[in-house]
Design brief:
The chain is an alpha/beta fold. It contains 20 helices and 19 strands. Strand 11, helix 10 and strand 12 form a beta-alpha-beta unit.
């Protein structure tokens, strides 16, 4: 994944750290010194520390050792530093840095080291900035004393909090936060960003995240990547471009098996999105009673009126759809289909027999509820786009609630030999043959009906232009996020509807490329 950024779990980070020490002979004390210096440099670039009171909360592990280095370097930059030291022997590297800070503190009034006994030692001292160096990536489960009390104190302060590696109490792997985890304005994370900073509570609690290099060879981090983050600029480079001699069929042909008498909007949104994502020709197979509505709302879509059930679901013969699919570069199945038995049987036949890359969304996923073995009975590339509720139906497990969304996406993608877009904030793109890709940060404007149909159509449009399934999925996510940001810049976070999103997809592609 050239140019993608590695994200690591807590275990992967510890393994990379150990490899740097054991295999590359990088002393642990040097790693700590570099981490602390880089964190202090980042803090000083963000905040004016000269003459300001900085309280550093120092835990007993190596995260506390990093904090001791930060305290020393910030004092060199003119800060008035108070290091509040939690009781305990700590690690040898932390002990060495504590002895050094004690010695320096004896010769200057800019450094005070205090062994923690009561919360009053923190409460009675002014702070313009608080540095959280209590727990780091070792935290999991509820906060224990005295860290819990100090985290609560930090969160009450009007001063900004800077977290080292991760906010104390945030699980570095899953992003689940313990009660009382302080909210940071800035998190300086070491070596590579942790997956937990991007998932669940992580984005809300970590603030701005800056990853700094500390001396661990890059290859060790990339080899152990738990997931890959695709930056905005990389997504822009992945987007397909049209040749000068392109025509509508060379630009990508999409066949969409979508819609029902009740749900014509999903058919309109998904097919229009495929066009706006760059596809040159989109054909929609819809129930006969839905054709006029789709034609009226999306004149460019070539509609084929198909036989239907008495209640308006598709009941078309699979052979006629397969004949259409033979000339398609990508097939989209599911948006607004409904869940009539005849329609779901059609979906299962299509997934098994279509040879073009296929996107299965919404009601199409319902065809495999509790029967996911059928997802593997196919020859075509397959992209699944479920949200949590749809995954629960697929798995026939109403209680499914994965703590680790990255692991869940990877496991299920491998199990089904498919690309799995686990929608959420952010969405995770699971791949059958490697660590997942993380989509862009969540955009609140996207919280509206129909954006899932838009995403499915966008991915189908990108597949039709030749993108690999994982690249099409993550680029589709970026296009949707960028389009929503363009809309929100004009109108604010609320009020976007899915057709607004569709209309802005070309501008979003232009913005990502620029």
């Amino acid at each position: 994944m050239t140019d993608a950024l590695p994200l690591v779990s807590a275990d992967a980070m510890r393994a990379a750290d150990r490899a740097a020490i054991d295999d590359w002979s990088v002393p642990g004390r040097l790693l700590m010194e570099t981490a602390g210096r880089e964190a202090a440099r980042t803090i000083a670039e963000r905040f004016d520390v000269a003459g300001r009171h900085v309280t550093v909360l120092v835990g007993t592990g190596n995260n506390g050792g990093d904090g001791l280095v930060v305290a020393r370097v910030l004092a060199d930059r003119g800060a008035i530093v108070r290091a509040l030291i939690l009781p305990g022997d700590g690690t040898p590297d932390r002990a060495a840095n504590l002895a050094l800070l004690d010695r320096l503190g004896a010769g200057t009034d800019r450094i005070e080291t205090v062994r923690y006994e009561t919360i009053g030692q923190a409460s009675n001292a002014p702070a313009d900035l608080v540095v959280d160096a209590l727990l780091g990536i070792g935290a999991s489960g509820p906060l224990r004393e005295p860290a819990a009390t100090l985290c609560a104190w930090a969160d009450r302060q009007p001063a900004p909090v800077v977290a080292l590696d991760v906010p104390s109490g945030l699980d570095a792997t899953t992003g689940r936060a313990a009660d009382g985890t302080p909210t940071a304005a800035l998190t300086v994370t070491f070596g590579a960003a942790k997956t937990g900073l991007r998932l669940h509570d992580g984005p809300r609690l970590a603030g701005d995240v800056v990853a700094v290099e500390i001396g661990i060879p890059e290859g060790e981090l990339r080899e152990r990547a738990t997931a890959w983050e695709v930056p905005r600029a990389l997504a822009g480079r992945w987007l397909p471009t049209r040749a000068a001699d392109a025509h509508k069929y060379s630009a990508g042909r999409v066949l969409a098996v979508v819609g029902s008498r009740r749900f014509t909007g999903a058919a309109v949104l998904s097919t229009a999105a495929a066009y706006r994502a760059g596809a040159g020709a989109v054909v929609a197979v819809v129930p006969a009673s839905a054709r006029d509505a789709v034609d009226h709302a999306a004149a460019e879509v070539m509609t084929e009126a198909a036989p239907e059930t008495p209640t308006g679901g598709l009941a078309v013969d699979v052979e006629s759809v397969l004949e259409r699919a033979a000339s398609a570069d990508a097939v989209l199945v599911g948006c607004g289909l409904g869940r009539e038995p005849e329609t779901l049987a059609l979906v299962r036949d299509l997934v098994a027999r279509v040879e073009a890359p296929l996107v299965l969304d919404a009601d199409g996923l319902a065809a495999f509820a509790g029967a996911t073995d059928g997802l593997r009975q196919r020859t075509a590339l397959l992209v699944l786009t479920p949200h949590l509720g749809e995954l629960r139906r697929l798995l026939d497990d109403d209680a499914f609630e994965p703590d680790d969304r990255v692991f869940a996406a990877q496991t299920l993608a491998a199990q089904w030999d498919a690309t799995l877009v686990f929608k959420g904030m952010p969405s995770v793109v699971g791949r059958a043959d490697g660590p997942p890709l993380l989509g862009p940060p969540g955009v609140p404007a996207l919280a509206t009906a129909g954006t899932g149909d838009t995403l499915a159509g966008t991915i189908a449009g990108l597949l039709a232009q030749g993108l690999a399934p994982d690249a099409a999925a993550v680029c589709g996510l970026w296009l949707g996020a960028q389009a929503a940001l363009l809309w929100a810049a004009e109108h604010g976070a609320a009020g976007l509807i899915a057709s607004d999103l569709v209309a802005r997809l070309p501008a979003a592609a232009h913005a990502l490329r620029s």
